[in-house]
């Protein structure tokens, strides 16, 4: 993992930039705001911009932690009990603004019409009733390692988090694909389109408000009729990954693919790293080069729970033009 510690001078520059901009953008999810914010990102301290560019160009491990920003915990108020209860204007507007600025330096933020009612910026918080689910909103269950939105052809290249609070130091887990120990034979099987990846539950209509998502047609299609895909791709010596074992199957009778997937799961689990996100920390994951999950934790449901903001980032918005709710929108369906 790579870590950048923001120093006092940089913190002052960031604070001044946020002071200047926070009143300008009431919403961050409009075409205009996203354009403007991406340009203001170039006013951030150069060490941050250099680090994010190095991250984008794969000159780093695939995890970049940016530490040293201070969150005003009182301003945030209680952690919401559900992402639907998130307030507007957001009490975390400054952190969301900084998250979108930083994200704009690695690509372009986007969201899903089928997730969190189409919001661009997600709240990752424990939700009562979801304790045992395989979702960011669960708590007591182990969140099995995964590529984010692995089922989707247009999944993000990167994933960005802002940690607002994590009082009990819940652990995000990270697996680095660069250093995975797999036999050549297994690599070659994993590189063949012999695996089905079903949509995870966060994309299902039952976990969105009725009528809010533009269309669940693609998600339905992927549920009922998943096209077989490869798990490893790119350069097989240093592969990219696309996997979410909890939601994966192989064709009936394809024991070789099943064994390769099991070997991959063992290799990833043997070398998982703990990441305890702290309040004020921003964290970027390379969604092609690392997988992530989360260890179980006990949520409190009293307004003091862990609270992350999350945004998906793509290297190429143009690829999804026909799959967004309109050509100008950032919402894929
Ligand atoms: O809560 C976490 O640490 C990560 C959860 C997760 O998988 C996600 O937000 O994509
Ligand atoms: Fe995830």
Automatic annotation (TrEMBL):
Gene3D superfamilies xref list: Clavaminate synthase-like
Start and end residues of each TauD/TfdA-like domain: 130-311
Coiled-coil regions, chain positions: none
Keywords tagged on the record: Iron, Metal-binding, Oxidoreductase
SUPFAM superfamilies the record matches: Clavaminate synthase-like (SSF51197)
Acyltransferase listed as a keyword: no
Keyword Endoplasmic reticulum: no
Superkingdom, taxonomy of origin: Bacteria
Pfam families membership: TauD (PF02668)
Family membership: Belongs to the clavaminate synthase family.
Name this protein carries in UniProt: Clavaminate synthase family protein
Taxonomic placement: Bacteria, Bacillati, Actinomycetota, Actinomycetes, Catenulisporales
